[in-house]
């Protein structure tokens, strides 16, 4: 239960951090470490070098851009912003309410005090809330390397179980979660054995409405597959006789593990999907009504 | 096979108002550095992967798992361990803090292994929410495991500590 030896660097600038990563094939980035340090201690990971980015300046921001009406509006989260700081931001919650809804389910407050939202995204755990939320909201992650900077859309970020599409020399410097558009609504629920545990199943919904009618409905799932997964259930959500959970399950193969059987996970998908969709539609109509009265 | 000696790092830790200069390998967990290098064995190590909460300390006033931090990464932080909760009253042993006193009053511990993590977590929790409901008290301690008490008396201790903190005897 002790990590294997590794070299350690604590650069003071992003340029130094990127140069260190570029020179080391087996290096890993340390931000909050709430997933990485257990992996080191259990020796499931044994990097040659850790590049600790905690001393880098200007990466702790939680910034809201725009007023919610434009395409580039949303919440920008720096690589060193802790989950607790994102959760505490009233401006972030106002721009994209799903952030706070989901973050309150991320581990325990003690873990959220150290763990970073961007780190959680590139750790790419399908049992974690934020990778799925980024996919559902069609956000993106900005990554930097000595070769330059690029933006990876959420749909292209997750390569496989615990595997992102970042190259070994890239650092995720910022995540972007788009603002919730007028007429759209979101909701989140999860079932865990104990509060703060990994969810057996977590479900989030994002719906768009016009005149109170659903024009688009998508549902994201935590802990159901081995990658963060989002299913479009617009057709089933528009049909009063429709079965959105059935539509979602047609696209999913719920996993079997020591925490829950595949059948139980499928059952939870059936229970949670209609509930969360109904919540999201309610949220959208409520926001539209407020928008008109304001 | 020969292995080169592991590189050591000089780390200055700020713990309970004192400075500890330690020389540790990069892989030294903060929990182990506190116990072995600083000699502060009040911080207990249970699961060593962030689940049990026994090793919880305060980093700049916020509860964090010391087993999920590296000592080399804690250089700029002000650390408070369970030893630092006791209040100075001029005596060598000091005076129990309200949270410590409440655990004593309410039988909030049995074997005591998990207690340091509860005390630090609740100290920070009450600083943020000085007057919790019973539900909020349960939520406050949801990240800490205790195998003796069944939690009932720990919840009572949280509520009692809130009273003591407000000066209600």
TrEMBL record, chain A:
Record-linked Pfam families: CO_deh_flav_C, FAD_binding_5
Keywords: FAD, Flavoprotein, Oxidoreductase
InterPro entries: CO_DH_flav_C (IPR005107), CO_DH_flav_C_dom_sf (IPR036683), Diverse_Substr_Oxidored (IPR051312), FAD-bd_PCMH (IPR016166), FAD-bd_PCMH-like_sf (IPR036318), FAD-bd_PCMH_sub1 (IPR016167), FAD-bd_PCMH_sub2 (IPR016169), Mopterin_DH_FAD-bd (IPR002346)
Gene3D superfamilies in the cross-refs: 3.30.465.10, CO dehydrogenase flavoprotein, C-terminal domain (3.30.390.50), Uridine Diphospho-n-acetylenolpyruvylglucosamine Reductase, domain 2 (3.30.43.10)
Keyword Flavoprotein: yes
GO molecular function: FAD binding; oxidoreductase activity
Protein name in UniProt: Xanthine dehydrogenase family protein subunit M
Source organism of this protein record: Nocardioides ganghwensis
From TrEMBL, chain B:
InterPro entries: 2Fe-2S-bd, 2Fe-2S-bd_dom_sf, 2Fe-2S_ferredoxin-like_sf, 2Fe-2S_ferredoxin-type, 2Fe2S_fd_BS, Beta-grasp_dom_sf, Diverse_Oxidoreductases
Protein name: (2Fe-2S)-binding protein
Pathway involvement of the protein, from the record: Alkaloid degradation; nicotine degradation
Keyword annotations: 2Fe-2S, Iron, Iron-sulfur, Metal-binding, Oxidoreductase
MF GO annotations: 2 iron, 2 sulfur cluster binding; metal ion binding; oxidoreductase activity
Domain of life from the UniProt record: Bacteria
Segments forming domain 2Fe-2S ferredoxin-type: 9-85
PANTHER family documented for this protein: OXIDOREDUCTASE WITH IRON-SULFUR SUBUNIT
Pfam family name, one: Fer2_2
Classification via CDD domains: fer2
Lineage: Bacteria, Bacillati, Actinomycetota, Actinomycetes, Propionibacteriales
